[in-house]
Design brief:
The complex is a heterodimer of chains A (313) and B (520). Chain A is flat, with a radius of gyration of 24 Å. Chain A has 313 residues and is mainly α. Chain A folds into two domains: 76 residues, no CATH class; 207 residues, MetI-like (MetI-like fold), CATH 1.10.3720.10. In chain B, helix 10 packs antiparallel against helix 12 and helix 15 packs antiparallel against helix 16. Chain B has 520 residues and is of the alpha+beta class. Helices cover 29% and strands 20% of the residues of chain B. Chain B starts with 5 loop residues before the first helix and ends in a 20-residue tail after the last strand. Chain B has a seven-stranded mixed β-sheet, with helices on both faces. The chains are: A mainly alpha (313), B alpha+beta (520). Chains A and B meet through helix 7 and helix 11 of A and helix 8 of B.
């Protein structure tokens, strides 16, 4: 067990390191001189060579690539991602200011996704082959094929403009999180509910469940005591990676709903080619994904120790 | 000077507001449902702080800063913080006299000494001013008087005093201790405009009327500027009543909003557009290095069709380097397909059976760049591609992310459709765009134009104060740029659009970048 945990942590660290190299290369391989871009972005229309040289030193752009990467990585480990080319403010401050809004959005979206997935997945499994099951599967398929921005815009037009509920301009507060979170959660809820249904049906066919059924166990007891625990491990894995994916999907929803989070900030940074911000956001997304995957794997091992043994082999 | 830049924002917002003011004299200058006392603007650019150097251009746009002179319709300037227009005491000396009893928002007097300090800061620290007025000085020589001395005669000084990016008027002494501290900058109230900023976040800026502002009476009780990058969200905010004006709407919004009661697409009156799409040429390599090819190209483009049919009348037809409404504008950019064919035939570009042309085995072909930040640039480029095909040009339209970075390179590109304007922000200075576009080292001289006659004319224009003499020189410049050498062309001029709420549906967007806080 201990060996499995250490191995998984080692894999996570390695993934992060590889990711960091790729993210750092974004800036290193970008065309043009970053120092020049920062100066012109700050109103110095025609910077002198001396100004450009000084800015290169300030931005840590001098030295060989390995040294520069090491310096950047050390800074990133301390939460120092450099200075935004667009605003001249520390990237960490800019992200930190917006992170609470994104966390708020993600938390609510995960909550909504889980609630919807548990409800719809369970109902679909219990009514497998009948009309509720068919309706749920049809609905989830429809949601899955629609891009998030289409769903978001449709909700804005129907729910806000036509029905007069919620707001167009959101401010990152709990009071305005509803519609963006609903939009963000729809896709994951659909995917998770379909998976849960399939896993519940698979678990329902296990020999021990058949024995329990033969002994006269009630339907809901079968579901809660036997089927759900059997479906839990694969469901947890998908939910975990889905949570990380929600963070990755937030830019579109945040932009559509003017949600003042890091996702919208990342979109603005991409538009403005503010590479330090893009780097920081990408690294943050990778870190969240790796961390969540690690936690999910460890929880899965705790829930089903056979996974540790399988991993050891 | 790109159309997608802050300048367009200014034109859109300020222009609209000016149209809203009673001064416009239009029949549609009043809100349909009475007096408007609060206003919320949804815009795409965020004001990051109130620093005069970094964010000073926002001050006149959103009303927290005033300028010495104010640009008004018809290419004119009127005094704003100055009591009268700057007076020339000599070829290089300008006397600036302030209105009496002016104060900054913090209550300190805005007198000669304070004005000299603010202007000196711009002359020494503002990279936009330095190349325009090298070696100039500003000295207080009276309680309300400042003398601006330039190193050489400079005809465009009054325009610079009205330009949003040149001389922001703020309390320099109050600024120094809070420089680099955004929150303290707000609290220091160093600005001079009719509205005082009371809050600024990454999402919005709020303003209230400045107590004791003596130049005029601010009409709005509350003014909010929301920063919303997504164009669709800005329009939806207006439709839902969360904003009154949405800036930078895409042209397609005109069609989408047709017949709707919750928002209206407005744009400035036909024939008044000053900015649009410039066809930037690279005459260093390829077929465009031949002046006869460039001349044929200029005659092969149907400028009227671009504005009225391709862009559905939301653009004005371009007739030359300058917009047609300017008195010195030459109408020398003409569509003449037969002339284009004749020029190409004479230059040895033979037409093949498939309609394409070639000379010495080389096709008459070039690549035309567009960029996604201006979706209309591609629409215009595709239309130009089709028009040029009829005389034998083969044009490949390619969209790239950073068109400015590409055209700054001497090689690797042929032509680009870029948002720009041939007249300065105030629409009163035709000279600095010539310097920028067609003299060595000019900011927008992407084609590397190094024409001795143009360079000499630009220098002469900068020192010519007599309007008649200036117009004579300008006529020659336009002849060279458009007819003889064809260094650049304007394809179509965009009538600045905004989306307004129903209560503002009657407003006309005015033609010049004015200060919208004058409205109401």
């Amino acid at each position: 067990m201990r060996h499995t945990v250490l191995r998984r942590i080692g894999q996570a660290v390695l993934t992060l390191l590889v990711g960091s190299v790729l993210v750092w290369a974004l800036l290193a391989l970008a065309p043009g001189d970053p120092a020049h871009r920062v100066l012109t972005a700050n109103g110095v229309a025609h910077p002198t060579e001396e100004q450009v040289r000084a800015k290169r030193v300030e931005l840590g752009l001098t030295g060989d690539p390995v040294t520069r990467y090491g310096r950047w990585l050390a800074g990133a480990a301390r939460g120092d991602f450099g200075t935004s080319w667009a605003t001249s403010r520390p990237v960490a401050d800019e992200l930190g200011q917006r992170l609470p809004a994104t966390v708020r959005l993600t938390v609510v979206a995960v909550g909504l996704s889980l609630a919807a997935a548990l409800l719809l997945g369970t109902v679909a499994a219990v009514t497998a082959g009948r009309w509720p099951d068919a309706a749920i599967r049809l609905l989830s398929s429809a949601v899955l094929v629609l891009p998030g921005f289409v769903v978001g815009l449709a909700l804005l037009h129907v729910v806000v403009l036509r029905l007069g509920h919620f707001q167009i301009i959101t401010d990152g507060s709990w009071a305005t999180v509803g519609l963006p979170a609903l939009t963000l959660s729809l896709g994951t809820a659909a995917a998770w509910s379909r998976l849960l249904r399939a896993e519940l049906l698979r678990a329902g066919g296990a020999p021990h469940v058949e024995v329990a059924t033969a002994r006269g166990a009630r339907r809901w007891r079968l579901l809660v005591v036997h089927d759900l625990p059997g479906a839990l491990v694969p469901f947890l894995t998908v939910v975990g990676t889905g949570v990380a994916a929600l963070l990755g999907g937030a830019p579109i929803v945040e932009t559509v709903f003017t949600w003042p989070g890091v996702g919208r900030y990342a979109v603005q940074a991409i538009t403005a080619r503010d590479l330090p911000v893009v780097q920081a956001y990408t690294l943050l997304a990778i870190a969240v994904y790796v961390a969540v995957s690690l936690v999910v794997d460890l929880v899965a091992v705790a829930v089903d120790p056979r996974l540790a043994r399988a991993g050891a082999r | 000077m790109r159309i997608g830049s802050r300048g367009r924002l200014l034109v859109a917002v300020l222009g609209l507001a000016l149209g809203a003011s009673a001064c416009t004299g239009t029949s549609t200058d009043k809100p349909v449902d009475g007096k408007v006392t609060t206003l919320t603007i949804a815009t795409s650019f965020a004001v990051k702080d109130l620093d005069p150097l970094e964010s000073g251009f926002w001050a006149p746009e959103f009303g927290f800063g005033a300028l010495l002179m104010k640009p008004v319709a018809g290419g004119k300037l009127v005094p704003w913080l100055l009591e009268s227009a700057p007076a020339q005491a000599g070829p290089t000396t300008w006397t600036l006299k302030l209105r009496p009893n002016l104060t900054f928002q913090n209550g300190k007097p805005l007198d000669g000494a304070a004005l000299a300090a603010a202007m000196t800061f711009s002359l020494t620290d503002n990279s936009s001013v330095k190349p325009m007025l090298p070696g100039a000085t500003a000295k207080a020589d009276g309680p309300l008087t400042v003398t601006l001395t330039t190193a050489k005669p400079t005809s465009y000084v009054p325009s610079l005093l009205a330009h949003e990016s040149m001389f922001p008027i703020f309390d320099h002494a109050g600024y120094l201790p809070v420089k680099g501290k955004p929150a303290e900058l707000i609290a220091a109230r160093i600005w001079s405009g009719p509205y005082t900023v009371t809050g600024l976040t990454s999402e919005a800026m709020t303003m209230t009327p400045t107590p004791g502002y003596t130049v005029s009476t601010p009409k709005l009780e509350k003014l909010t500027v929301r920063f919303i990058p997504d164009a669709q969200a800005r329009i939806l905010a207006v439709q839902h009543g969360e904003a009154d004006l949405a800036l930078y709407p895409p042209t397609s919004a005109a069609r989408e909003l047709q017949g709707r009661a919750d928002a209206v697409f407005l744009n400035q009156a036909a024939g008044t557009a000053a900015e649009g799409f410039q066809l930037v040429l690279n005459p260093r390599t390829g077929p465009l290095a031949e002046v006869e090819v460039r001349r044929a190209l200029s005659h092969a483009i149907d400028y009227g069709q671009l504005a009225t049919q391709v862009m559905n009348g939301l653009y004005d037809t371009s007739v030359g380097f300058y917009p047609a409404f300017l008195p010195y504008a030459a109408r020398n950019q003409t569509f003449d397909q037969a002339r284009a064919n004749t020029l190409l035939d004479a230059a040895g570009w033979a037409k093949a059976a498939d309609g394409t042309r070639a000379k010495a085995g080389k096709p008459l072909a070039f690549t035309l760049l567009t960029y996604p930040q201006q979706p209309d640039s591609k629409t215009v480029a595709v239309a130009v591609q089709a028009q040029l095909k009829t005389v034998g040009f083969t044009v490949e339209v390619r969209q790239i992310d950073d068109v400015t970075a590409t055209v700054k390179q001497p090689a690797g590109w042929d032509a680009a459709v870029m948002g720009n304007g041939a007249i300065d922000w105030t629409q009163t200075d035709p000279v600095t765009p010539i310097i920028a576009n067609f003299t060595p080292g000019g900011d927008n001289n992407y084609g590397g134009v190094d024409d001795p006659e143009l360079t000499r004319l630009a220098a002469q224009l900068a020192e010519t104060f007599d309007p008649a003499a200036r117009d004579t020189l300008m006529a020659r410049v336009q002849q060279i740029v458009i007819e003889e050498k064809v260094y650049s062309l304007y394809l179509a001029l965009k009538r600045v659009p905004v989306v307004a709420s129903p209560k503002l549906r009657g407003y006309a967007v005015p033609p010049v970048a004015l200060l919208w806080v004058d409205a109401y």
